[in-house]
Amino acid sequence: MSTFALTQCWFTRRHSPDHKARDRIDGAFYAHCNHCRRPIFSVDGTTWHINGGFNIDALGDAASFFLSVDDPAEGMTIARIPIHPEASEEDVDALIEQACKDYAIGEEGTTLILRDHRHHKGAKRPKKGL
Questions:
Q1: Distance (Å, rounded) from C-alpha 78 to C-alpha 87?
Q2: Are strands 39-42 and 49-50 parallel, antiparallel or unpaired?
Q3: Measured between alpha carbons, how far is 103 from 98 in angstroms, rounded to an integer?
Q4: Beta partners for 67?
Q5: φ and ψ of 18, to 5 deg
Q6: How many secondary structure helices (H) and strands (E) does the chain include?
Q7: I need a labelling partner for 93 at 20 to 30 A (CA). Which of 74, 81, 86, 127 fits?
Q8: Which residues pair with residue 68 across a beta bridge?
Q9: CA nearest 85: which of 98, 66, 67?
Q10: In Å, what is the CA distance from 87 to each residue of 65, 93, 118?
Q11: Phi, psi of 54 (to 5 degrees)
Q12: What pTM did the predictor assign?
């Protein structure tokens, strides 16, 4: 019966490439982990992730493009409206306008506000609510 030793990256959750990252393919560096020998990738060349499978960090950009309808009086988010990362400003403006209509944002007596959570340069903030 054989046993397997756990590698350093299993304990630390930090993979290190077996060679210096040289080639960028599709905007990422690829290598094999020096410890577990699994294929890994990095976008910035410093933080490495297992290549393939589920990676929450890869979802970060997609998850950061949304509008939210918030009720500051109650301290809660009422709705979260996803925005496609490739959406044009006209598409986003249409989403903002529709959300304002759907949730009566900007009308008298409402406490709801609309927030723009896009995290890139040039992102316009909604005209109503902020």
A1: 23
A2: antiparallel
A3: 9
A4: 81, 116
A5: -80, -5
A6: 3, 7
A7: 74
A8: 80, 115
A9: 66
A10: 10, 10, 11
A11: -90, 130
A12: 0.47
Q: Count CB atoms within 10 A of the CB of residue 95.
A: 20
The three-state secondary structure class of 69 is strand
Alpha carbon distance 17, 21 (integer Å): 7
The 10 Å Cβ neighbour count of residue 30 is 17
> Can you tell me which residue has the tokens 């500051």?
72
Question: Which residue do the tokens 């990676």 mark?
Answer: 55
